[in-house]
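[[Sequence with tokens]]
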Amino acid sequence: MAKIRKDKIWRWRCQWSIVTIAAIALIIYNAAANVWLLRPPSCPVHTTPSPTEPSTCEPCIDTAPNTALDDDPVGRIDLRLGRWDGSRSYKMFDYAAVGDMYAELSSNRHVTLATQSSIERLHELLRIAAHWSGPISVAVFVAGDELRLLRAFATWLFRCQPEVYSRLAIHVAMPAERPGVYGFVPSWNKDCSSRPLPGERRADTVAWRARHPYPQNHLRNLARRNCHTPYVFLVDVDIVPSKGMSEALDNFLATVPRCSLCAYVVPTYELDKRVANFPANKSELLRLSKNKLAIPFHRKVFIYNQYASNFSRWEASGGNESTETHISHNVTNFELLYEPFYVAPDTVPPHDERFLGYGFTRNTQVTSLLLWDKCKKKKKILVMNNVCEFTNIINKKHTQKLNKKHIFTLHITNVLENKKCEEMKKIEICVFL
């Protein structure tokens, strides 16, 4: 009996010993597993190559650039953004499209050509770009479905005229009353054999544009404010600079002392429609002038527009002087309605955005510029030689009512004359030969 009891106790001890050993083993295993799982990760050792050690990575020159993001820059404008003008009548979008060379050219050149256009005249930008090799800042006015045409034109330039597109910065202005809409992009935007910007505007957009004035001064200021060179050459989109003018101005401005209060007037001529090509130099232009195929800008429409530049004196040299760009003469007979095209720092007065529509919008700015000088009792106006610009508008019909414009300009002048001299600055105006 005692032996049986002893065997039971032994078996019980053996069973509990096995259970205890298994439990201890399980505890040790869990502890080891926790230590292994919770250990900090080992940090890889980075060796810094010596300065003379060549890089083992080479640029990936085989990768084709992704043009999908570049050929439709206008399509990425967020129309909810932009900035308003002072009256909240127009919304502005800076740098809607920018060529890849615009910033570099702005750093290396002295002058940016600034211009403005509506969508139906924008194709004339190609004539300017063919003669001007420097940066170009262009402000475009669009209303309603015209935005889709600008979008297509920017894509067409990117694909078909990359050399022109690379030098451009395109800015957009649209009216609050009829903001731009993207709509359907026409197929010619990727067809280099097509003529860009055919007449595709909707009838209601054309009718709206006919009833509302064109905000020229808003656009001029928009184009000017986005120039980054020391000087700005502001022209209308139908004014074409003489070939090589960008380089000629660069050479001239690099040799003359820096003058932040100088403006250099560029003589402007109208060419007869029978003139097939722009004159290559001043001698050729004078030959056309002698044959009545070239006349000073707006001489038939409104003679005072360029009268103070004294074209007779400018032409008197006969084109026999130095081929280098230089100053021809001082403008001493300033007229109230003088509207020259000139090269100047962008510190000159802005264009008054209260005045809308066509005619005398530039005159108000030039008058402001000269009134600043008048208050300082000093005025010097010079004309430049061996650079000029042209437009093909002789024999065009002009429907402008000059009597109303004359009254309008007198009103503007009265406003400007009432300004205090303390608020004005001095400036010199020069005219190129």
Q: What stands out?
A: The longest strand covers residues 90-98.
